Write a sequence for this structure.
């Protein structure tokens, strides 16, 4: 989980490009999405945790909100570190703790996305299947959520514990890891990539099956299926589009980048530099996920959508309704105007 790369691995003619991109452009972009995500996820959490946990879907969505908030917490640390503030102590905190929390939250969120797709599949396509009612139970969903957090912590937290070596002259996150830490880092990285691709294939299968099932059902009863298909496709497209846009590019380059860290002799300096730049750019797309997940909540959860629209309509009504103080001031203005007009008429 290497946020901070040693600059001595970069070619001389590309150091300036790297410094500009990683220390000037990316901090600004992370600051923007951090501000946006803080507002969106704050509103989402405020609404969602007022919604009763009445279904497995709500359980998974609430856990996604928690993962997004934890992921969002790591952005300010990265921004300050990339801007060069905080010194080596801040870099140590980023390497050992916030970087690990970032990846823990990201892959936990990905796992919950796959659980949501599985829950939707059994509820819509396999509703008569015996396992469907079991997976729809709130208690089972809570158990799967706890299991997800437990497994992800088991694989991710050792990356913080095993980053216990003394700092070398050339600082990098990998230099802080022991030999066991480097092996665990590589193993956990491959595990996470495996989690992603399993989740991606599962989501494609589940949502393709749901779309086909909805289309066949409405065609069979000879009703206009355009509205139903549009609603179904909107939910499917929103989740899959966010998933593909945010996570696929990063995971395409994740494996070669990890290999370039662990087996430096097999990669030239220039190739390691290129892989690092691609990794940082695609990692930003993954970080952008915290701004796009509220779109998924809006389309996937009717309770959340209705609560949000209700809050927005109530706010609009309050804004349109004049307060007592405003009404009193308006009356005073009218009276003042009448008096001025009367005085002008009298003087004339």
């Amino acid at each position: 989980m290497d946020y901070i790369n040693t600059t001595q691995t970069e070619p001389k003619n590309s150091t300036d490009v790297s410094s500009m991109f990683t220390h000037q452009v990316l901090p600004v972009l992370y600051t923007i999405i951090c501000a946006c995500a803080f507002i969106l996820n704050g509103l989402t959490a405020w609404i969602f945790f007022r919604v009763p946990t009445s279904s497995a879907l709500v359980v998974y969505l609430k856990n996604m909100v928690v993962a997004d908030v934890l992921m969002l917490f790591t952005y300010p640390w990265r921004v300050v570190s990339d801007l060069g503030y905080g010194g080596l102590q801040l870099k140590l905190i980023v390497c050992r703790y916030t970087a690990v929390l970032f990846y823990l939250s990201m892959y936990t969120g990905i796992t919950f996305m796959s659980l949501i797709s599985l829950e939707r599949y059994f509820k819509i396509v396999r509703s008569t299947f015996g396992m469907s009612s079991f997976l729809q139970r709130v208690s089972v969903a809570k158990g799967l959520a706890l299991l997800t957090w437990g497994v992800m912590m088991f694989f991710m937290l050792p990356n913080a514990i095993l980053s216990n070596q003394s700092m070398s002259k050339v600082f990098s996150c990998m230099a802080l890891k022991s030999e066991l830490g480097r092996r665990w880092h590589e193993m956990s990285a491959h595990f996470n990539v495996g989690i992603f691709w399993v989740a991606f294939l599962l989501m494609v299968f589940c949502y393709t099956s749901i779309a086909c099932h909805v289309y066949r059902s409405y065609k069979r009863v000879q009703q206009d299926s355009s509205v139903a298909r549009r609603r179904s496709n909107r939910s499917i497209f929103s989740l899959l589009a966010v998933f593909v846009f945010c996570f696929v590019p990063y995971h395409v380059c994740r494996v070669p980048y990890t290999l370039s860290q662990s087996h430096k002799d097999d990669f030239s300096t220039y190739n390691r530099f290129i892989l690092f730049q691609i990794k940082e750019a695609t990692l930003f797309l993954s970080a952008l996920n915290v701004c796009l997940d509220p779109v998924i909540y809006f389309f996937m959860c009717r309770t959340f959508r209705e609560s949000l629209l209700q809050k927005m309509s109530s706010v609009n009504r309050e804004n349109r309704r004049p307060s007592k103080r405003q009404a009193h001031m308006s009356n005073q203005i009218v009276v003042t105007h009448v008096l001025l007009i009367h005085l002008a008429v009298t003087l004339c």
